[in-house]
Specification:
With about 200 residues, the chain is mostly beta strands. The N terminus is likely disordered. A 5-stranded mixed beta sheet has the order 7-13-12-9-10. It has a 4-stranded antiparallel beta sheet with strand order 2-1-5-6, with no helix packed on it. The longest helix has 10 residues. The protein contains 4 helices and 13 strands. About 10% of the residues lie in helices and about 40% in strands. The radius of gyration is 21 Å and the shape is elongated.
Length: about 200
C-alpha cells in the first residue's frame, strides 16, 4: 500500500543536480540562495532523484520543466480590462499542459492597485463588494487570450481585479522500492492588477 511521505524528512531529493531542503510537513523546496540556479532549470529537461536513507535510489525520472512565464508587450501595462481585451505572453512550444488563469477580487486590491489611491472614490466600491470573488480557468499556452463575458461575469464594474497566469508541470510519482507517493510541482507565474470596465 503506498504511503504518503509527508510524515518525515528521511529523504534526499535533488532536481537537476540541486539538493532540495526539507521544510515543515516534509515539503521539499528550493532554498532562497538557490534562486539563480533553479531559474536555469526552466525550459530544460531535468532529472529528479529521490533517495531514502538506507534504501538507495527510490525514484529517478527525467521530465521537462516549462519556460518561465512572462507577459508580452504592451501588457501588463494596461489599467482597464473588459470584454474583448487581449493579453499576450511568451509561448513555450514544448509545454503540453494548459496555463492556469485566475481572476481574483479582494477589497484590499483597491488599496494595493496604485500608489495614490483616492479612497473617496474607492471606498464605495469596497463597501458594495465586501467579499472575495475568484474565477479560475485552464487556457491553452498559445501566447494570447481574449476575455469574454464568461470570465468577467462574476465581477462588478470598477472592481480592481488581480490576474494570475501560471505555467508549470506536476507529477505524482510512486517509488520503485518503497511504494511511497511523491507529489512534485514546478511552476512559474506573473500577476497584474487592473480595473474592470464595462
Amino acid at each position: 500500500m503506498p504511503t504518503d511521505i509527508q510524515n518525515d524528512c528521511g529523504y534526499n531529493i535533488s532536481l537537476g543536480g540541486l539538493t532540495l531542503a526539507c521544510r515543515e510537513n516534509n515539503h521539499y523546496l528550493v532554498a532562497n540562495n538557490q534562486r539563480r540556479e533553479i531559474e536555469s532549470l526552466f525550459g530544460q529537461t531535468v532529472q529528479l532523484e529521490v533517495n531514502k536513507a538506507g534504501e538507495g535510489t527510490d525514484i529517478s525520472q527525467s521530465f521537462y520543466i516549462p519556460q518561465q512565464f512572462k507577459f508580452g508587450a504592451p501588457t501588463p501595462v494596461f489599467d482597464e480590462i473588459n470584454i474583448g481585451t487581449t493579453i499576450t505572453w511568451n509561448t513555450d512550444p514544448l509545454n503540453t499542459q494548459d496555463l492556469i488563469m485566475i481572476l481574483d477580487y479582494m477589497p484590499t486590491n483597491h488599496v494595493m492597485y496604485a500608489y495614490d489611491v483616492d479612497m473617496e472614490y474607492e471606498q464605495p466600491i469596497i463597501d458594495a463588494n465586501p467579499n472575495r470573488i475568484s474565477y479560475a480557468k485552464m487556457i491553452p499556452d498559445v501566447g494570447s487570450y481574449t476575455f469574454a463575458s464568461e470570465e468577467l461575469a462574476p465581477f462588478n464594474e470598477n472592481m480592481v481585479l488581480k490576474l494570475w497566469l501560471i505555467r508549470g508541470t506536476h507529477r505524482l510519482i510512486q517509488g520503485e522500492t518503497t511504494n511511497d507517493i511523491i507529489a512534485f510541482a514546478a511552476y512559474t507565474n506573473q500577476n497584474h492588477f487592473f480595473r474592470y470596465k464595462l
